[in-house]
Design brief:
By secondary structure, this protein is of the alpha/beta class. It has helices spanning about 10-20, 40-45, 75-85, 95-105, 120-125, 130-135, 145-165; strands spanning about 25-30, 35, 55, 60, 65-70, 70-75, 110, 115-120, 135-140. It has 7 helices and 9 strands, in the order αββαββββααββααβα. A 4-stranded mixed β-sheet has the order 1-6-3-7. A 3-stranded mixed β-sheet has the order 2-9-8.
Length: about 170
C-alpha cells in the first residue's frame, strides 16, 4: 500500500491493532522515521504521566485544528483502544488530525511534550549538553531533500555518543 495522507491512517490503525493484540504496554509512541527517541528518557517521562487518558506530544495548529504532530504522539493504552474502536475515524485526512478528532469526541485533549527540532547539521552542533542529556525526542527533519534527514540524524548520533561517552 502506498504512503499517502489517505492510506497512512489505515496503516496506523492496523499497527495499533497489532500492538494491542501482541504486546502488554502502558504507553505507545507513534513516531516516524525522521525521529530519534531516547528510550531511557522516554521511560523516565512516562513514569511521571497518568496511566490513563493521556495524549501528548508537540502540539501544532493548522487552521482551526489543534493536534499533536505525527512526529511523536504518546498515547496510553486505553486511548489506543478507543482510537481503533472509533467507527467514525476519518481516514480522509492525515492520521495525526484524525486521531485528534477521534479523541476530541471522547473529550480528551492534547498535552504538550517537548521535542527538539533539528533542521540542519549546524542545529545539531549548536545543541548544548544539557539538552542532549535530557531530551526524549529529537525530530531530524529537513524540508525537501529527505537524504539530509539521514545526515542530521547521523550528526546527532555522533554528538550523543560523545556526551554519553560511547
Amino acid at each position: 500500500m502506498p504512503d499517502t495522507p489517505f492510506t497512512i491512517g489505515i496503516k496506523t490503525l492496523a499497527a495499533f491493532r497489532y500492538v494491542l493484540e501482541h504486546y502488554d504496554f502502558d504507553f505507545l509512541l507513534r513516531t516516524n522515521s525522521s525521529s530519534d527517541v531516547n528510550l531511557k528518557k522516554l521511560n523516565e517521562l512516562c513514569a511521571t504521566l497518568p496511566r490513563a487518558a493521556f495524549y501528548g506530544g508537540a502540539i501544532v495548529s493548522h487552521g482551526e485544528e489543534t493536534f499533536v504532530s505525527g512526529s511523536g504522539i504518546l498515547l496510553t493504552r486505553d486511548l489506543v483502544l478507543k482510537i481503533v474502536s472509533d467507527n467514525d475515524f476519518e481516514f480522509s485526512m492525515a492520521d495525526d488530525v484524525a486521531m485528534s478528532r477521534s479523541l476530541q469526541r471522547i473529550h480528551v485533549g492534547p498535552s504538550e511534550l517537548e521535542i527538539v527540532r533539528l533542521r540542519s547539521v549546524a542545529d545539531v552542533a549548536d545543541l548544548d549538553e544539557s539538552t542532549l542529556g535530557s531530551a526524549h525526542h529529537y525530530r531530524c527533519k529537513i524540508e525537501g531533500d529527505r537524504n539530509q534527514d539521514t545526515r542530521v540524524m547521523s550528526a546527532l548520533h555522533e554528538r550523543l555518543a560523545d556526551v554519553q561517552g560511547g
